[in-house]
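Running this now, will post back.
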Amino acid sequence: MARLSPRNLLRATALAAGLAIAGSAVAFDSVRMMIPANPGGGWDTTGRELGKAMIAAGAVKNIQYDNKGGAAGAIGLAQFVSASKGDPNALMMGGMVMVGGLIQNKSAVTIDQVTPIARLTSEYEVIVVPSNSPIKDMKDLMAKFKANPGSISWGGGSAGGTDHILAGLLAKEVGVEPGKVNYVPFKGGGEAVAAIIGGHVSVGVSGLSEFAQHIQSGKMRALAVSSAEKIGSIPSLKEQGFNVELANWRGIFGAPGITKEQQAALVKAVEAATKHPSWAETLKKQDWAAYWLPGDQYGAFVQAENKRIGEILAGLSLGKK
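Update: finished.
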């Protein structure tokens, strides 16, 4: 039998990997995905784009979505836990916002009750003002905030989530007690966008993807991103003299009580989706970074995040006592 050259061996290995992914085609006739937020936000976009990629990759024939917003995802999580136990065809979006919200609200349901499938993306936060705002840059915003914290209202996602944490970190950075942050939580991205553009809050905080189209259209003015360096034309907080950096992550979970084999099948289906070209296009379009971590490794990461975020919330006086 002829021996393959190293180059041909690599090609054969790549082909085998491609066939393995293709082999996951039609692994599921139908999947139900819980999105524990209102339409228009980051979880909604991530879940629906992942669903499209799963169908495009042949891992799923059909996906049904159920939006259930409120309480940083706790309402949707509670419904998912009670209604989907043992269901191998059920998925739920989640992420850092949910971890923080559950801790803050001392929720009766916890993220430990669902099955970790995969960590998907990481995204930096953007700070914006309406285009007609008198606030021109971060130094102007933080000077006004420091002089009179209550005069600046911060609009973002659920209390205790990533947006709220970023506002608290900025308060701490400029010597303002985090508890004095005038934070206005919204159940979904659509509500937040309307409030910010309408001038009902002084400043908006969210993932870059949620506000990108409104920044590009000129309805919002971006003041900073929470990355170490600027993204596009938007300067980072650090570049403007504020030593704050924060990334938001999102991932997908399975139902409580499914078997290891069922968990592995869902991981395989999601992995096939993330390797499809349509997912790469989504990451580029939404300014998301790939942040893949499968199965139990993802579960260990979530446990570590529970501890880390709990400490952040306690330190910023954002958690319930």
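DSSP finds eleven helices and ten strands in the chain. More later if anyone needs it.
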